[in-house]
Amino acid sequence: MSELAANARTFFRQKENRYLLFGLILPAYLIAFSLIEALIPADACKPTYIPLDDKIPFLEGFVVPYMLWFPMILAMAAYLAWRDHEGFKRYMTFLGVSLSTVLVLYVLFPNRQDLRVTQFPRDNLFTWIVSIVYSQDTNTNVCPSIHVVGSLAVGFAALHCKRLRRPVAQVAIWALCILVSVSTVFVKQHSALDVILAVPLSVAAYFVVYRLIFKKAKN
Hints:
This protein is an all-alpha fold. It has helices at residues 2-13, 25-39, 52-55, 63-67, 69-83, 85-108, 125-136, 146-159, 167-186, 192-218; strands spanning 46-47, 111-112.
C-alpha cells in the first residue's frame, strides 16, 4: 500500500498529470452527498410539489435515460481527461461549484418528493427497474435536481470542447442531456419544480466557471 501511495504521489507530481487532480471533485461530492443523506432524516424534509406534477404521467420507459446519467457524467470526464485537459478542469470545476451549491441548499432547506408510484399500472422490465431504483435511492435531497445539474454540466463541457463542436455531436449530446433531465419527472423521481430550479442554478454556475474563473486564468 505504501508503495502504491508513493507511486501515486510521483505520478501527480509530474506537471503533465496534475490536471487529473481535478477528478477528485467527483468522489468528494459523492462522499458529502452520502453524509447528508445519512444525517438529515426524511421527516425533517419538506416535500417539493407544483400542480404541473399532477399532469405529468408515469412513463416507465424513461428509466433508461434516467439510468444513463452517471455513465454519461463519467464518459464525458474520461473523454476530456484523454482529449482535452483544460476542458477536463473546466468540467470538473463546474461540477464542484454547482454540486456543492446544491448540497448547501439541501442542508439549509431539507426537501423530499412524495410523487413515487405506489402501484405500477403495468408489469414489465421497465417497471421492475424503476422498483429497484425506488428501493436503492431515497426520495430526499431532490431540489434542485442533481440529475439536471449534471446533465447541463455535460452539455456545457461539450460546447467548450473543440473536438465536440460538430453539429452532429452537439445535437446528440444535448438531446441526451435533455432526455436524461426530463426522465426524472416521468419516472416520478423528481417534481417539475426540482427540474425548473436546477436550470438557473446551472446557468449561474456556468458564468462563474466558464466566464469568470477560467477566463481570468486564461488571461
